[in-house]
Write a structure and sequence with these properties.
Largest sheet: 5 strands, mixed
Number of helices: 5
Structural class: alpha+beta
Strand order of the largest sheet: 1-4-5-3-2
Strand content: 5-15%
CATH architecture of one domain: 2-Layer Sandwich
């Protein structure tokens, strides 16, 4: 038995554009809906001004704008209040033996900074009490000794450094510094 054919669609009204379009294209088949492709994650926003401020702060630190520039013969000297006077006096006289040593001769400022930070961090982590850093006197450069001033600024800003003083003449004099470190777990 044959089914009766569906009645022809009513002619569209001349003002109904959508109906005219459907009449013109005929019957349509609905497409399967696929899950949308995952969007590529957007990059995280960057704080460009904060990055520039950080770069400026690092450069100001390297140039040492907050401290007077040391000359070749000037001794390095710094003591935190937590360091007892007796220990400070022993350090100044060179009576505390250095357990490790870092020689920065020939390094540029950027490399010397990275080496010194890593050396002090490692010495503190291994519970070394006193270390020696050889920075040189800076007699061969033009102007102020770069490494000597860098070492001075960097050590002053470290929480794990209790104090430091230029070594006695037999241990390098004003071309080396003895650094007394805080015990691990204390900063």
């Amino acid at each position: 038995m044959k089914r009766p054919a569906p009645p022809p669609p009513a002619p569209p009204e001349p003002d109904d554009d959508a109906a005219l379009f459907r009449d013109a294209i005929g019957p349509v088949r609905e497409l399967k809906v696929h899950a949308p492709l995952p969007e590529r994650p957007r990059p995280r926003p960057r704080a460009r001004m904060a990055e520039l401020d950080e770069i400026d702060a690092r450069e100001a630190f390297r140039r040492g704008q907050d401290l007077p520039t040391l000359a070749a013969g000037d001794p390095l000297s710094y003591r935190r209040d937590a360091l007892p006077r007796g220990a400070w006096q022993r350090l100044r006289k060179g009576e505390i033996a250095a357990q490790e040593e870092l020689d920065l001769h020939g390094a540029d400022a950027r490399t010397a900074e990275a080496l010194l930070k890593a050396f002090i961090t490692d010495a503190h982590r291994h519970a070394l009490g006193c270390v020696r850093v050889i920075h040189g006197k800076g007699l061969h450069g033009d102007g102020a000794p770069v490494l000597k001033n860098l070492v001075d600024r960097l050590l002053r800003h470290r929480g794990d450094v209790l104090g430091f003083h230029s070594a006695p003449a037999a241990q390098g004099g004003t071309g080396a510094v003895l650094v007394l470190l805080a015990p691990p777990g204390r900063r």
